[in-house]
Amino acid sequence: MRAQQTAAGDAFAAALANVDWSRPWFQPFAARGAALAAAVHRGADLRALLDAESGALALCNARGLPLRFVPQQALPEGRAYEAHIDATGEVPTRDNLHDFFNALVWLQFPQAKRVLNRIQATVIAREGVRTARGGVRDAATLFDENAVLFLSEGEEYADALRGFAWQRLFIARRHAWGSACRVVPFGHALLEKLVRPYKAVTAHAWPLPPLPDGALDQALALSLDQADAAGTLRGGRCFAPLPVMGIPAWCGDNASPDFYTDTTVFRPGRMRDLRRQGD
Asked: Could you tell me where the DSSP H helices lie in 197-249?
């Protein structure tokens, strides 16, 4: 057993060593992520490190219980992962990139993660765990795993995104990226994919007004709360698909307009979205 644990720990340390923290999509997490990765490489226990970070930030779950990162074995058999976090404040965490990025997002966006967990736990308490998650849990899970925050001035950029107007968004308005429009990753599965990025990586975009990084977590938590109360956080259609390698400066190849002519990635969209482009 000890040999297996040692091998697993070595594999995890090696996986962390492959993360290039200089990539633009890791920027919000780079300082903390690189420090944690270096400590794991030196033999530190990931969960102990995360608990120290969480304690320093005084993080808690929706019930006000201190947030702690525990081994996967702490999750009782038959209990849903989200329900366990809500009931105990314990986040079951394995030694792998998926759970590492999940923990980083908890530390970076604790208020938004708390809202998502509360939404998921509420649905589980009301409906139980089903084979199909249902619209609300599906949307919350998609957000948790694969969301990016699409921060833009006015409606011009968000309309182009929702309307699949890739030429307008990425070429005609290219000069505005980084000022009038930018993207901040949130989903931990998305971050895991971006360790080895490929052209077709597509995120679920959630539009928000432009905000400084220090105000993002609170604004996002409020936005999710309002969407849940209004019944608009439901299913995949409440998001806009965004092929993230199209974002200027995220990929050297996208400097050429031909990059965006690949319709297997930059799809034309549904008919109602195409009509929206012409409005």
From this structure: 213-230
SS percent in the chain: helix, strand, coil, step 5: 60, 10, 30
**Contact 93/108 with Cβ under 8 angstroms?**
no
Structure tokens at 64: 């006000």
Q: Are 110 and 57 in contact (CB under 8 A)?
A: yes
Rounded Cα gap, residues 216 and 11, in angstroms: 34
* The two structure tokens encoding residue 255: 């400097």
Q: Which two tokens stand for residue 82?
A: 């989200």
List the structure tokens of 44: 């530190």
- Angle CA 105–72–25, to nearest 5: 20
Residue 191 to residue 26: CA distance in whole angstroms: 8
The owner of tokens 């899970």 is 141
Domain spans, the chain = 2-135, 142-277
List the chain residues with pLDDT less than 70: 1-8, 130-133, 270-279
Residue of 204, 224, 209 whose CA lies nearest to 148: 204
Handedness of CA 137, 142, 145, 149 (dihedral sign): negative
Q: What is the pLDDT of residues 151-185, one digit of tens each?
A: 999 899 999 999 999 999 999 999 999 999 999 99
